[in-house]
Write a structure and sequence with these properties.
Blueprint (H helix, E strand, L loop, with lengths): L2 E2 L9 E3 L23 H4 L5 H8 L4 E3 L2 H9 L6 E3 L1 H7 L4 E6 L10 H13 L4 E6 L3 H13 L2 E7 H6 L1 H9 L3 E5 L5 H9 L7 H14 L3 E3 L6 H20 L6 E5 L4 H15 L6 E7 L14 E6 L8 E6 L21 H8 L4 E5 L1 H15 L7 H18 L4 E6 L7 H8 L2
Helix pairs in contact: 2-11, 3-5, 4-14, 5-6, 6-8, 9-10, 11-12, 14-15
Bound molecules: pyridoxal-5'-phosphate.
GO molecular function: L-serine hydro-lyase (adding indole, L-tryptophan-forming) activity; pyridoxal phosphate binding; tryptophan synthase activity
Protein name: Tryptophan synthase beta chain
InterPro entries: Trp_synth_b-like, Trp_synth_b_CS, Trp_synth_beta, Trp_synth_beta/beta-like, TrpB-like_PALP, TrpB-like_PALP_sf
């Protein structure tokens, strides 16, 4: 079987929330001043009530509103699961490699899965403007299109290095009617402060989040939307894993290794959490592998002391609640690497807790290796993957090679989080076209 499809009535009707199934209690988000657990009312300054309820929920399953399910179908769900036969052949591996196609959404990544839900709940509670940040532009594109769907205005702060090097994603956002500012910008107090102190600042996700939060807090009928990290975002992304479970079941496959790249952790969480629950029930004995760039080692940097598992801010200015997570520090300025979506200093508290408890594993790869893997994937499977997704591909290739050495028939499944058709300059730079 080369492609496993599901029918549109097989789009999940509930999200899976891993909170009740965690190996230990999830440390709550805390108020930076009082250090007390953040109260729902305090979250509500930034997010609509429905999302705050999801953020704090301990229910295992949460119903997906019918309007959201329909919108998910509109953007192409359920997404197919593919077998990478030609890649297997090129590697000469006895492993069977599968990948879930989150690259097929109109915005080009998994991010619309949560953008649609977030825009919907904001619209339902009378919010008129959403502010957000974006790195490479994937999240900004996804949220702008979701806002257009529900008649909301969208303001995006785009990390300056990407704003300058990726004009096409900016045009995508403008096509959906969004206002896009290079961050640090001159439209917020914090942006002006950063620009005064360092006029050549190329920006970071942490700075862009501070600007978006500042604008949301000061604005009328304005709220903020985050594309990763928070519990409700991980929740919305579980449609990926819930579908993949059904697809593997259909063809009688049991996964041995599940792989996804991690920035803030959402595509990894969405893909793996339902399978982690299966493993607890004895339905598989899989390994779960989060792949990050060597230059942004929020998980793997624990060994060298570069990262810590502790309370930290989600943004540079320290305006967000503090989250207990693996973090490189909220003032971390990442090197400008090509996988812009993986440059975040922190990691989802849920993914962090699972890493700390050895439920999941992490690997760090150098970007040269990931682009080489992306080239091989393009040549064998005919798909140009996002630079972020190339981290998952490179790891899957490494595991398939190890299976060859050990002569093991492993089932390796990775999440193809997005396509790279707007990232060709990155390929050109890295592969010297
Ligand atoms: C944003 C993005 C990522 C990283 O974000 P996560 O929240 O870790 O999933 C990965 N791949 C693509 C294509 C992205 O756009």
């Amino acid at each position: 079987m080369i492609r496993v499809n599901l029918d549109s009535d097989e789009v999940p009707d509930r999200w899976y929330n891993i909170v009740p199934d965690l190996p230990e209690k999830l440390p709550p988000a805390i108020h930076p001043g009082t250090r007390e657990p953040l109260k729902p009312e305090e979250w509500e300054g930034l997010f609509p009530k429905a999302l705050v309820r999801q953020e704090l929920s301990e229910e295992r399953y949460i119903r997906i509103p019918e309007e959201v399910r329909e919108a998910l179908i509109t953007i192409g769900r359920p997404s197919p699961l593919y077998r990478a036969r030609r890649l297997e052949k090129a590697l000469g591996t006895p492993a069977r490699i599968y990948f879930k196609r989150e690259d097929l959404s109109p915005a080009g990544s998994h991010k619309p899965n949560t953008a649609i839900a977030q825009a919907y709940y904001n619209m339902a509670e009378g919010v008129e403007n959403l502010t957000t940040e974006t790195g490479a532009g994937q999240w900004g594109s996804a949220l702008s299109s979701a806002c257009a769907l529900y008649g909301l205005k969208c303001t995006v702060f785009m990390v300056r290095s990407s704003y300058d090097s990726k004009p096409y994603r900016k045009f995508v956002m403008k096509m959906f009617g969004a206002d896009v500012y290079a961050s640090p910008s001159n439209v917020t107090e914090f942006g002006r402060k950063v620009n005064r102190e360092d006029p050549t600042c190329s920006g970071s996700l942490g700075i862009a989040i501070s600007e978006a939060v500042e604008m949301a807090v000061k604005g009328e009928k304005t709220k903020y939307a985050l594309g990763s990290v928070l519990n409700h975002v991980m929740l919305h992304q579980t449609v990926i894993g819930l579908e993949a479970q059904k697809q593997l079941e259909k063809i009688g496959e049991k996964p041995d290794t599940l792989i996804a790249c991690v920035g803030g952790g959402s595509n990894f969480a969405g893909f793996t959490f339902p399978f982690i629950h299966d493993k607890q029930k004895g339905k598989n004995d899989a390994k779960f592998i989060a792949v990050e760039p060597q230059s942004v080692p929020s998980l793997t940097g624990m060994k060298s002391g570069e990262s810590k598992y502790d309370y930290d801010f989600g943004d540079t200015a320290g305006m967000t609640p503090m989250l207990k997570m693996h973090s490189l520090g909220h003032d971390f300025m990442p090197r400008v690497i090509h996988a812009g979506g993986l440059r975040y200093h922190g990691m989802s508290p849920l993914v962090s807790l699972l890493y700390k408890n050895n439920v999941i594993e992490a690997e760090a790869l150098h970007q040269a290796e990931t682009f080489a893997a992306g080239k091989l994937f393009a040549e064998t499977e005919g798909i140009i993957a996002a630079p972020e997704s190339c981290h998952a591909i490179a790891s899957a290739i490494n595991h398939a090679r190890a299976a060859k050495k050990a002569n093991e028939e492993k089932v390796i499944v990775f999440n193809l989080s997005g396509h790279g058709l707007l990232d060709l300059q990155n390929y050109a730079d890295m592969l010297k076209f």
